[in-house]
Design goal:
Length: 215
């Protein structure tokens, strides 16, 4: 099965175009003001205008309120909500139901976490997928760090691999974990929030090579 790719932390129109041109399946907007990759709903609306059909638009939220999400959706037509904070399964399900969107949950992997149990909790609440990211005591994604890929679980759930992915290691990451999708942000940047189009191209080539190895 082909490994899908999301390019997250898009802040510029030209970067969204590059992600699409090089074959990304989804682009991600970060609606979390403390992040250096954060955009406003109005900025996201302008960028989203260049995203063609069949490329998913994902909105990343961190412990957002229903009003926050509703106001964002007034400007940009998100396809999927990505919850990246301390949201419980029931909170995720409630927020998504109120705005009529599919959703998935990002989980930070650490030694004390029962990954299988966490995946099951969110899937039972209706998650379309689960994203597994590197743990950090403060940052909510975009850390540039990876976790031990050997603990990546097998699951009937669509699992997304994130954390520390680069053009140099994504092929190996896919070979080890065989995820449904990979999610990259800092690994294809020249500066925080500024994507390097050649790195996007190289990353996508690595994804294709990794997917081919799976076959």
């Amino acid at each position: 099965m082909r490994t899908r790719t999301k390019i997250c932390g898009i802040t510029r129109v030209e970067d969204a175009r590059a992600a699409v041109d090089h074959g990304a399946d989804a682009i991600g907007f970060v609606f979390y003001p403390p992040s250096p990759r954060a955009v406003t709903a109005v900025q996201a609306q302008q960028i989203a205008q260049v995203i063609p059909p069949y490329v998913q638009i994902v909105g990343l939220f961190v412990d957002a309120t229903l009003v926050d999400i509703q106001e964002t959706l007034q400007h940009v037509a998100l396809d999927v909500l990505q919850f990246h904070g301390q949201e419980t399964p029931s909170q995720c399900a409630h927020l998504a139901k109120q705005v009529g969107r599919r959703w998935y949950k990002a989980i930070q992997v650490h030694a004390q976490l029962d990954v299988h149990q966490e995946i099951q909790r969110y899937c039972q609440a209706g998650a379309s997928a689960v994203l597994l990211d590197a743990w950090h005591p403060v940052l909510k994604g975009g850390t540039g760090h990876s976790f031990d890929w050997s603990v990546f679980p097998t699951s009937s759930t669509a699992l997304i691999l994130a954390g520390g992915l680069t053009p140099e290691n994504v092929k190996q990451a896919i070979t080890i974990t065989t995820p449904f999708a990979v999610d990259v942000s800092g690994g294809v940047e020249s500066a925080k929030g500024i994507k390097d189009h050649q790195l996007i191209k190289a990353f996508m080539q690595g994804v294709h090579c990794g997917s081919a190895n799976e076959d």
